[in-house]
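Q: Sequence in, structure out?
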Amino acid sequence: MTGLPWAALAVNAAASAGAALAVLLATFAVARARGLHRLVDIAWGVAFAVVALVSWALSAGHGDDGRRLLVTVLTVVWGLRLAAHIARRGRGHGEDPRYERLLARAPGSRDAYALRMVYLLQAALVWLVSLPVQVAPYVPVPLGPGAVAAGLLWAAGFVFESVGDHQLARFKADPAHRGKVMDRGLWSWTRHPNYFGDFLVWWGLFGLACGTWQAAAVTVVSPLVMSCLLTVGSGKRLLEKQLADRPGYAAYTARTSGFLPLPPRRHPDPEDPRP
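A: Exactly. Output:
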């Protein structure tokens, strides 16, 4: 039998929506009390981990146990690592300029605007992007070569994201690098190794949900939405707009791939007389 238990999936979808909403509403309460809405970035990874655990618990008696465990562990590891990294990165800092600019445009109550435009929106995105994590535990197909390939894709993305974040954190920790552009390590091959890693992670999790064509059809929207967010949404596009005026950034973009890792491009030295 390779069909999906649609009634159980509907219950899981509702419970996942409630879990994501609970995490974001709790974060809103804490952020409002502290006057620090950048905390929502920490909640992003935590919410995915909670959805994965809820889906694992509710899917007991359904699907393949190996697939259930694998997708849950991979999602929780990814979500908690991301949350811990963002928490460390933001320690001791004030409000994120992105949220300051957003809330400056609030037509009325800043809290109501933040709740609507940040927290509720992110809860909805967590639910939508996490569809493979919700559906994969119900896929009644044992792990095979396709799942192995998906797991390797996830692993490549996780390593790329983790190493990129670590390299950037070490670079920023050196006072001599203040105001400079990070162009070393993975950052010399792509301007966004962390976003590229996220891209691979979510296509890998989607692959784990592809045990049946029905599951693939239901969940393909997840990696597509995440890819759009990373490349033309709130990820790459907004960050590059913020960095555009930084000294050396134009030269960095001229020699470094915008997303897919590629060898750095070499540009002739204008002072060199050779062709």
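The chain is about 65% helix and 0% strand.
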